[in-house]
Specification:
Elements (H helix, E strand, L loop, with lengths): L13 E3 L1 H7 L3 E6 L11 H14 L4 E7 L3 H13 L2 E7 L11 H8 L3 E5 L1 H4 L2 H12 L5 E3 L7 H17 L8 E6 L3 H12 L5 E6 L4 H16 L12 E3 L12 H14 L8 H14 L7 E6 L12 H10 L1
Parallel strand pairs: 2-10, 3-4, 3-6, 4-5, 7-8, 7-10, 8-9
Antiparallel strand pairs: 1-2
Helix pairs in contact: 2-3, 2-7, 3-4, 7-8, 10-11, 10-12
Length: 331
């Protein structure tokens, strides 16, 4: 059995979103509240970090290295986990020009507050992030032993964290008449892979449905294939694994590009649930859920579980003024 370090407040609640259900007139909507895994360490990434942090400790590491966008939830969680564990942290952060943000906001502000060492890189450099992280790990030795965590902690270890999460959900929906759809934002692949594993382990007590936040379905499947290949080197895969149902129909302008229509939907969802939706991830996913319900793509389900992967700090890095003003005029 692989160890983990307890970083998250688990299990997270499964709550009915009755007002959202009535407004959107589709299947019953539930919210899996992974925004409640902690405060600074909130969100789905903490589940993955529990396994990576344990492996880092076991390897004698004193430093964590990872990479993500300038507003990365994963980088924020990694940096604050490192601070909690008394470890150093280095973050490779992608910006359009490789320069720091003019004004740190949202997750990026927390990157600074955590005390992590921040390395800003351009998109073309980010394509080489794995090499850059390994090179830095080599440069830090022998003064420090570094543990490199891939983007999104989406690898075998990260997948284990979300396989556990999926089994947690299976316990919460035991006795439901029909398997629900589990709707979530899909990007680096670890969350999706873990849910697929858990679905197989629990005799498909739920159906995994992922909506891309910026990449094509082909790219998502390539990432999942890489995680499965790594997993198969450590353990036998269940024979009854079913691929997830993935869509890239709602990526809009791409990763991190948020339209007024998406922001308006996020505003609507917040006012119907009291929850915050990160425009990059959960915001795009809640917009996609509404549109999929309108399209009739979930008509075969009595229930849909929206996996709230957290990231509420991202709200403070976006300008909602236009949609708030328009909403006020409409009222």
């Amino acid at each position: 059995m692989i160890d983990k370090l307890p970083l998250a407040n688990l299990p997270t609640p499964l709550e009915a979103a009755d007002r959202l259900t009535r407004s959107w007139e589709g299947p019953r909507i539930w919210v899996k509240r992974d925004d409640l895994t902690g405060f600074g360490l909130s969100g789905n990434k903490v589940r993955k970090l529990e396994y990576h942090a344990a492996a880092a400790r076991a390897a004698g590491a004193t430093t964590l290295i990872t990479a993500g966008a300038a507003q990365s939830n994963h980088c924020r969680a990694t940096a604050l986990a490192a601070a909690q564990l008394g470890m150093s942290c280095h973050l490779f952060l992608r910006t359009p020009d490789g320069r720091p943000l003019a004004e740190p906001t949202g997750n990026n502000l927390l990157h600074h507050l955590s005390g992590a060492s921040l390395h800003y890189i351009k998109p073309d450099q980010y394509a080489q992030r794995d090499r850059l992280m390994e090179e830095l790990a080599g440069e830090l030795q022998p003064a420090a032993t570094a543990w490199v965590i891939p983007e999104g902690a989406s690898d075998y270890l990260g997948m284990l964290g979300f396989a556990e999460a999926g089994r947690e959900l299976a316990d919460q929906i035991e006795g439901w008449r029909k398997p629900p759809a589990v709707w979530h934002a899909s990007s680096s692949g670890g969350t999706t892979a873990g849910l697929v594993m858990a679905a197989a382990q629990t005799r498909h007590s739920f159906v995994v449905m992922g909506t891309s936040v910026g990449d094509t379905v082909e790219e998502l499947n390539e990432r999942l294939a890489a995680i499965w290949a790594e997993t198969s080197r450590h353990r036998s895969l269940p024979k009854n694994v079913l691929p997830p149902i993935l869509t890239d129909a709602y990526i809009g302008g791409g990763y991190g590009v948020v339209s007024d229509a998406e922001l308006s939907c996020q505003l609507e969802a917040t006012r119907l649930t009291g929850l915050l939706f990160d425009p990059v991830y959960t915001g795009k996913a809640i917009y996609a859920l509404r549109e999929e319900i309108r399209r009739g793509g979930l008509d075969d389900f009595d229930d849909v579980v929206f996996w709230h992967t957290g990231g509420g700090f991202g709200v403070f890095a976006h300008d909602f003024s236009a949609v708030i003003g328009r909403s006020a005029e409409e009222r």
